[in-house]
Amino acid sequence: MTAQILDGKALAAQLRTEVAERAAALTERLGAAPRLAIVSFEDEGPSAVYVRSVARAAERVGIDPLTLTLPAEMEPDDVGRRIDALNRDASVAGIVLAEPLPAWLSRTDLAAHIDPAKDVDGASPVNAGWLARGEPRMVPATALAVLTILRRHEIPIAGRRAVVVGRSPVIGRPVAQLLIAADATVVVCHSRTADLAAETRRAEILVVAAGRPGLIGPDMVSPGCVVIDCGITTTPAGVVGDVDFEAVREVVTAITPVPGGVGPVTSVMVVVQAIAAAERAGGMAAR
Question: What is the CATH architecture of 141-263?
Answer without folding.
Answer: 3-Layer(aba) Sandwich (3.40)
